[in-house]
From TrEMBL:
GO terms for cellular component: endoplasmic reticulum membrane; Golgi membrane. This is UDP-galactose/UDP-glucose transporter 3. It is a multi-pass membrane protein. It comes from Protea cynaroides. Keywords: Antiport, Endoplasmic reticulum, Membrane, Transmembrane, Transmembrane helix, Transport. InterPro entries: SCL35B1-4/HUT1 (IPR013657). It holds the Pfam family UAA. The chain crosses the membrane at residues 63-83, 104-123, 299-317. It is found in: Endoplasmic reticulum membrane. GO terms for molecular function: antiporter activity; UDP-galactose transmembrane transporter activity; UDP-glucose transmembrane transporter activity.
């Protein structure tokens, strides 16, 4: 489920992902802010948020704060990625059984983040007047339940590095929809970014995977695995549009309100799916956790990492801007692939490493283009 709760900004659109639940808030690149993100002095204005890493006072304290934010985001989401891969591929206990009920991770994440967001609202929110009612998230909650479930299910069929790369290609459907449906004109550099990412993901998918990596998968099937990842992105698109509509209608909705509403409906839908009938897979998942406490602990820490990591996301956005956050989370993805290759025993061939560098070259170039655009905007306002 996109284990990372991050703020990603695609060409002309950026996505606010809360926790591992892929909660998105669309804001135009030219301005705006994720709702309700607070700084030490109150709400962060659109000019402050879109200023990226520029326009803030410098000092040793800010350097240490940035290091703190980077360390928090990396630690939370790299650990979460390792645990996601562990739960999906490891054989637990003396009987060597796999945890086959991966959608249960979504339910567990929903419950933990629901409780977490409720606590944060009680601690930090001054007023909830004007925010979106809880029932408005019901439709976005459906796609936000199905999409991440597909992303996690893909780990039965493809490796974790392959999943990370596939889910890093969000800009591809965004630009296709923008160009074909809405007639948006993109620049040559923006198309170059998309080409690098699409080419890198395609090359990685077509390169032969090592037998060691394949042996760890429950049911190796690359076409099905990649198909699930791209369906995940498709469902995310509907979630994006619905989330945007809610935020426009209720502009005073805070980020924690969004997290609470989406996780509430996610909990309801997943409870019905997993426990709604006597043969529901949730009962088997609970029984497995009882028999294998190690798996239960991994799942709990996995969920907690997503919730805690979100605090660092909010802190980074409010103090340094969304561009800094995008840079941190993009490099985190690359480090996650390296960690998976070294620690989890997923060796990559030279061609696969070339594909990885191709994808992250496109993402890095995209970040550079955003930085240049912000520089031009700042010069116009001076």
């Amino acid at each position: 489920m996109g284990i990372e709760g991050v703020l990603l900004r695609e060409p002309r659109i950026r996505f606010l992902q809360l926790g591992a639940l892929h909660i998105k808030h669309i804001v135009h690149l030219e301005g705006g802010k994720p709702p309700g993100i607070q700084s030490g002095a109150g709400s962060v204005g659109s000019g402050e948020l879109s200023s990226g890493m520029e326009g803030h006072s410098t000092g040793v304290g800010r350097v240490f704060l940035l290091i703190f934010c980077v360390s928090g985001i990396w630690a939370a989401y790299i650990t979460q990625g390792v645990l996601q891969e562990t739960v999906s591929t490891k054989r637990f206990g003396p009987d060597g059984k796999r945890f086959e009920h991966l959608p249960f991770l979504n339910l567990a994440q929903n419950v933990v983040c629901l409780i977490w967001s409720f606590i944060m609202i009680k601690l930090w929110s001054r007023s909830r007047a004007g925010g979106a009612p809880w029932w408005t998230y019901w439709s976005a909650g459906i796609t936000n339940t199905i999409g991440p479930a597909m992303g996690i299910e893909a780990l039965k069929y493809i490796s974790y590095p392959a999943q990370v790369l596939a889910k890093s290609s969000k800009m591809i459907p965004v630009m296709l929809m923008g160009a074909l449906v809405y007639g948006i004109k993109y620049t040559v550099p923006e198309y170059l970014c998309t080409f690098l990412v699409a080419g890198g993901v395609s090359a990685f998918a077509l390169t032969k995977t090592s037998s060691k990596t394949i042996s760890k998968l429950a049911h190796p099937n690359a076409p099905l695995g990649y198909g699930l990842c791209f369906l995940n992105l498709g469902f995310d698109g509907f979630t994006n549009a619905t989330q945007d509509s809610i935020s426009v209608r209720y502009p005073k909705t805070s980020a924690w309100d969004i997290m609470l509403g989406m996780n509430l409906w996610g909990t309801i839908y997943n409870m019905i799916y997993m426990f709604g009938w006597p043969q529901g897979s949730g009962f088997e998942a609970v029984q497995f956790c009882k028999q294998h406490p190690e798996a239960a602990w991994d799942i709990f820490v996995y969920c907690l990492c997503g919730a805690v990591g979100q605090n660092f996301i909010f802190l980074t956005i409010s103090r340094f801007g969304s561009l800094a956050n995008t840079t941190i989370t993009t490099t985190r993805k690359f480090v996650s692939i390296v960690v998976s290759s070294l620690l989890s025993g997923n060796p990559l061939s030279a061609k696969q490493w070339g594909s990885v560098f191709m994808v992250f070259s496109g993402l890095s170039y995209q970040i550079y283009l955003k930085w240049k655009k912000l520089q031009r905007q700042q010069k116009k306002t001076m």
